[in-house]
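Example 3.2
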Amino acid sequence: MERQSQKSSKTTVKRIAGAAQRDRPQQYGSKGANTSKASRKIAKNNLFVAVSGTISDGHKFISNAISDGAIAIILEQFPEEIDEDITYIKVKNSNNALGIVASNFYNNPSERIKLVGVTGTNGKTTIVSLLHQLFTLLNVKAGMLSTIQNKIESKIITSTHTTPDAIQINLLLNKMIDAGCEYCFMEVSSHAISQRRVNGLTYSGGVFTNITQDHLDYHNTFAEYRDVKKSFFDSLSKNAFALTNKDDKNGYKMLEATKAKKLSYSLKSFSDYKCRVLENQFEGMLLQINKVDVWVKLIGDFNAYNILSVYAVANQFGFSDYDVLTALSMLNSAEGRFQFVRNEDAITGIVDYAHTEDALKNVLSTINNIRSNAEELITIVGCGGDRDKAKRPLMAKVACNLSNQVIITSDNPRSEKPEEIIEDMLADLDPIQKKKVLVITDRKQAIMTAGRLAKKDDIILLAGKGHEKYQEINGEKFPFDDMEELKQSLKINN
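Structure, written as C-alpha cells:
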C-alpha cells in the first residue's frame, strides 16, 4: 500500500476520480457529512469518503464501508488497522477532496453549464427562484438549487438543505445538462462554503445580497460569518462576474480579493445597476430600473434589490432589456416570501420566512409604508431552537417597535423547550413593549388568536417559517403549514 503525501493528494484524488468517471462504478459513498441519514449506501467496488461532520465522523464507518465492498478510502487520518487490499488516500480535508471527486466523477458538469451562485443572509431563495422563473419565461432551459426545492426545468426535486452535499450538487447538475439545461441558479449557504460542499465547482457568476447577524451558533462571530461569505467571491475565476449589493456596508468587502469582473447594484448610490421604487402597494410596485419603468408583482425595498440583481444577472448573460423587463413584470414571489391572502372582512394575512432581525424589520417596514395606520398590525413571531440565541431578543424588539400587537409563539423548537426560547425573546423588552405582547406557545392557537383579534382592514404578519410544511420538535417533524393555518384562522376556504 502506498501512503500518499498531502502535497500529492489533490492530484491523486483528481486522477482516481477521473478514472472512476471513465469506468463508472455504482457510486461513491459518503458517511458523516451531517448525519447518518445523509449517508450513501456503500456497495461493491465503491470509493468511500470519510468526512468529519458536525454530528458524526465518517472515519468511524471505514470498517463498515470496507465490509460493504468499498475498495478505496479517502480519509484525513489512517485507521489503526490497515487492510492491505484497500487503497487509502490521505488528504488534508475530506470535504474538499469529495468536491473534486464528485466533480470529476460526473465529468465536471459545472464547466458544461452556466452556474450562478447566490449568497447572503436574506434574499437567496427569492433571487434563485426569480432567476429560474425569468430564464424560463425567456424560453431558456434552466435548473435551480434552493432551500424550497430543487428544479430541473419544471421537474421538482425535494430539497433538504439550502445547499446539497457535493455529490448531490454534481449529480443534479449533470441531470440538468442531460435535460438540456443551459443555466443553473444555486443558493450558496455559509455552512456549505465553510464545509467545502461547493468546492470543485466552476461558477459563471456570483451574487451577494446582504449580510446581517445569523448562524452565529455555527460561525461564532460575525466577522467569521462575513469572511466565509467573502471566500466564495475570492474563489471565483477571472471569467466569472461578481455582483454585490453596494448599499450593504459589507458589500464592498466581497469584491476585495476576487479575480472576477466586479459589478454592483444599488437603490441608494451610484452603481452599475440602479433602481428606484416609484410606487409600493400590496398588489405590487412600480420600479425604475436603469431609467426604464416596470411594474412587478413583488413589494418592498428588499424585493426591489432582489429584482434588480435578477435583472443584472440576465444583462450579464446578454439578454435584451426589453425581453428581460417584460418578463420581470410576470414574476411571482417564492413560496413563503411575502405571500398574502385577504378575507371577506378585508383582513390581510401575510406569511413570510423572515427569521432574522433584519429580515423581520424589512417586512414590517414594508407593511408600515403601505398601510394607512388606521388599521392594526398584528405580528406572530417565534425563534428556532438550536440556533443563534443572540437574535432572539432582537427579533422580539423589532416586532414590538413596528407592530400594534405581537404574539410570541413557538417556531421550530427542535431540541429546546419552547418556553425557554420565548423567555430569551422577552428578556430585553421594556414595560411599554411588553404591553403589546401576548405569549401563546402553541403555534396553531397563536394563529387562531390573531384571527379572532383582527378587525376589518387589519393586517396579520405570520413570520419565521414561510414555505416550511412542518414544525420540528425533539427531532421529529410534524405537519404544519403556516399559510393553511392562517387561511383557516381568517375563514378563507380557497
